Amino acid sequence: xxxxxxxxxxxxxxxxxxxIKREDLLPFSMGGNKVRIxxxxxxxxxxxxxxxxxxxxSVHSNLCRVLSNFCYHRKIxxxxxxxxxxxxxxxxxxxxSLIRWTGTEIVHCAKxxxxxxVDAVMEKICRKGKKPYxxxxxxxxxxxxxxxxxxxxxxxxxxxxYEKKMGWEFDYLFCPSGTGATQxxxxxxxxxxxxxxxxxxxxxxxxxxxxxxxxxxxxxQAYFEKCGRSLPEEFEQEIHLLDQYRQEGYGKYDERIISCxxxxxxxxxxxxxxxxxxxxxxxxxEYLREKPIKNSRILFLHTGGTPLFYDFLADREGQR
Length: 320
Fold this sequence. Notes:
Elements: E1 5-7, E2 17-22, H1 33-47, E3 52-57, H2 62-73, E4 77-84, H3 94-101, E5 105-110, H4 114-127, E6 132-134, H5 145-166, E7 172-177, H6 181-193, E8 198-203, H7 209-227, E9 240-242, H8 255-268, H9 277-290, E10 297-302, H10 306-318
Parallel strand pairs: 2-10, 3-4, 3-6, 4-5, 7-8, 7-10, 8-9
Antiparallel strand pairs: 1-2
C-alpha cells in the first residue's frame, strides 16, 4: 500500500510549503491509518494462534470500524468493548452503524470499568472454547505497543522513498496523536532512517500530556525490542507532543476547527473530520503561525476518518 503525497493549495508564508499524505485513500473500509494498524494486529493475532478478536474504542472509533470489517471478511468472531464517559449521552455515529453491519457484538461500559469488562468478555469467549486476542494486550491496555507501532514504522519508508524521488527531505511531519500508535511508528521509522525531520503529534484527546508522552516512549521502546534493534539512548528527545490545541478533549471542537475543516474541503477537496484530522490540521496551522518556522517543507499525515466527516455534515445540516 502506497498512498499519494501531494502539495496543498494554501497561502504560503515565510517560504514554507505544505504537503499531505492521503492515508484516507487506503483501499479498505474507507481507508485511514487504522487500515495499516489493523493489518499489523491481525498478523500478530494469527501468529499467537488466537481465533477471536476483542476490539476497544468509543462510538467514533475508526480502528473498531476497520477491524470489525476485517474480521467479517476473514470470518473471525469479533467483540467490541465500547466505553463512555459518565456524562456522555448516546451518540449515533456512522462508524458505530458500520460496526453493527458486520455483526460484531458491542459491549458497553463506563470508562472506569474497562479492565473488568475486558476480563468478563475474555472469560465468556474462553468458555466457548476459543482463544481471545485483545488488541491492546493486557486487561490494562499494555503489552502490544510494539505491534501497534510497527504499522507506521513500515509506512515511513514510503515517505523516505518520496523524498528520494524529489531530491529533498521534509523538515516537519504533523499527525493527530490519540492513542499514540501512529506517532510512535513514525518516530521509529524516523530513528531507523536517521534523518533530521521532527515528528509533531497534535494531541486530540484530554489524556494527560505526561501520560501521552510515556505511552509514545514505551511504544518506541517496545518496537525496537520486538525487532531486536538497538535504540538510540536519547530517543525521547524525538518525541514532540503539542497539547495546546486539543481544546476540551476528545470529540470537542469549536468554530475555528469547523472553519479549518470547511476551508480544507473547499480549497483542496479534502474531507477532514473535527474529532481527529481537522483538529490536528488546525493545530498544525496555529503552531506554524505562532513559531518562527521559515523555508521549511511540511508534511501532514491525513489519518482518515471519512465516516466522521459525514457525521459532522449530518449534524451541521440538522442544525440549520
